[in-house]
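Recall that a protein's primary structure is simply its ordered list of amino acids. Everything else, from secondary elements to tertiary packing, is in principle encoded there. The following example makes that idea concrete.
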Amino acid sequence: MKKKLFPAGTGLYKYVLKHPVKSVSAVMFFLLFVWWCFALPNTLFSDPCSTVLEDRDGNLLGASVAKDGQWRFPARALVPDKYKICLIAAEDRHFRQHPGINPVAIVKAAFSTIAGGRKRGGSTITMQVMRMARHNPPRTVPEKVLESLMALRLEVRYSKDEILGFYAAHAPFGGNVVGLEAACRRWFGTSASGLSWAEAATLAVLPNNPALIYPGKNRKQLIAKRNRLLQELHNQGTIDALTLQLALEEPEPGPPARLPDLAPHLLQRAIREGFGGTIIRSTISLVLQQKVQAVTQRHHTQHTANGVFNASVLVCDVNSGAVRAYIGNTNNPARADNADFVDMTDASRSYGSLLKPLLFASALDEGLICPSQLLPDVPGIFGSYAPRNFSDEYNGVVPASEALSRSLNVPFVSMQQSLGTEKFLFALRSAGISTLQKPARHYGLSLVLGGGEAKLWELTGMYASMARKLKQATGTSIEGNLVHPPVYSLKEDESLITRSETGKTPVKTGPVLHVETKSGGKGAGQRTDKSKAGYVNQQGSEKLPSAGAIYATLKALLDNNRPGPDANRKEFALNRPISWKTGTSQGLRDAWSIGITPDYVIAVWVGNADGEGRPGLTGIEVAAPLMFNINRLLPEAGNFKEPRDLVPVAVCAQSGCKANTGICPNVIEELLPKGCTRSLPCTYHQVIHTDMDAHFRVNSDCEQVINMKHLPWFVLPPVQAWYYRRLKVYNAPPPVRADCIAGGSQKNGMAMVYPGNGARIRIPAGLNGKPGQVVFELVHNNKNATVWWHLDGKFIGISHQIHQTAQSPAFGQHTLSVIDDEGQIINTRFSVE
């Protein structure tokens, strides 16, 4: 037989049967008590909040309206004392004493309503908080009772100051302004901590009738209510007579103040990356941000006449990667179609030559080059790829560091080929470039010349990561990962946070961001995470080039006295040392410049967001001047220190290669990256055999050994020598004596077919009315020979096997020069009529 819970004979059972009303009342009271204990939701307020961006010192940089169209700033932990005092005096003078409801006030309000007199408000501040949390339900007696019960529960769960914080964060202040902080910014243009007594009193009386804030006759009522409250504060002894007099003389609030809009693109970036509806304490320096913005805007105005409408700038601290200035795009209100809303720091664009420093450093580590080693600089064909220098001028040979500082293309294509495109691509991805996701064969040898796309944000991170590794190797203490993108959010203890570029999930390094959330509640206002994980998809610092290779790279980029077309750029530096690199994309669509000092990285992009190219839009002409102007705004940082991993290497003074012992006549010792110890010895110096006067080269077939001299000689390959001697003095080896040449005479293995020397050419116009082309043709007795073509000293192409090139020379006299890989030269003069 099943046992009953309450057997018939028990006392409880008898009591329930005998006193049913009392029993039911007890159960109801118990259930009501349980409900009262859990009457409040975990989150009191779920209204969306504005996103607020502050600088590193708490100054407002900008804010966005909440999703519901309200200016509702996230709640702050502290409410200013002046506002607390004014609010309690205006709304609930017994707030500190009552338990959430004020029975005396409720009774007075009820009698006043029943008597038909002036309506009195019996709600306490706590009751008003619950009313706001429940979205202002109708003012009925049941709702008032429910509101009172919930107010009692609120007082048990939260402190008085926390309740005042809820009120200040969610009270209406007129129009679409909600919350104390938003009201202070909109009506007085200041933060809540900077309120005067008059301003605090105005905002204390305003939620009772928010319509009073609007211009018109209601303003007089607002001022009258404010002044009555100020007088009451004086009567209570809260403020003295002088303070009262000064407060009464303050004018009424003016029209809504415009909120600062100093970093709009950074604000939108924070929203995209998951921090919408929070207060973000950024790493930005307000003063520097304003200065950089002004310099960038002036620079932008100068170039709009050329149809260049967009620019972007990042200034980052090297040690931490913290962004000190962030200009996502320029502002051009006169044109609505210039896409100034696009954040160009996060746009993928062709990077031009900006990847050359990483390739240079990687080649140093691999022992492919030494910093001063001569590299070939002649037009060449790499498979089907025929790169050219930007200036269309060639040096024959050029020191590797000069090739970097002058950003010559041909030496770096050859360098990438030697290193391997796969290895270079891996180095780029390890350094934080996430946009190069296709296989190496897709980019080919154009990878180093802008054959892919990158973001200013990631390029800045790459340069800063390299500088960080160098500084750590020279004794600077740097915590956390060395390789990471820039960071823009700051915790109160200066700890930094960044995000993965692959999604919105925050990815931290070290202690992380402390932001205020959009909802109230105990512990609300804090978004913390103790994770110390590294950056997603970021490789360790061992994937970067060595500190010694980075030092040699930045030292080469420090050279501002650059030969050739950049010779007039020395004044850019203004005696401030800075390593800098420019880049220009194909079609003159993107101009870049990045400068690196031990303290800062300055990254600049200039162009059009829609990709339109413009004449003169080059890194050296357009981006570099802006970068140097910004550098003048920063404290001078000095030079990078030498790292400890440099080693002494015997170097050929003339070729810059590792010395070939016994052949290089002038050897010097230099501190170089360790990779240089594995580089090939000098091949430019050769031992040649001459007669005793050193006028002719001879051999044992035509001269006795006893009558020979054996001399080390600097020898360039024929094509390199042809280009080199046009710019510098080249002491070529003596010619071979006639009796030492097999066959007794030299044979020229090529001949010009067209045009003949002295020819007069007429070029007919094409069907479109434009000048047509003439085909130059050459024959060579070596079917595998390569021929370099030049028109009036300018390189125009390379031919192999079939030696033809189609050109459109202008009217007048011309000189056609061709040179083969054996050094044979033909010059032909002709005229176009």
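Confidence is low (pLDDT under 50) at residues 492-539, 561-568, 743-747. The first helix runs from residue 11 to 18.
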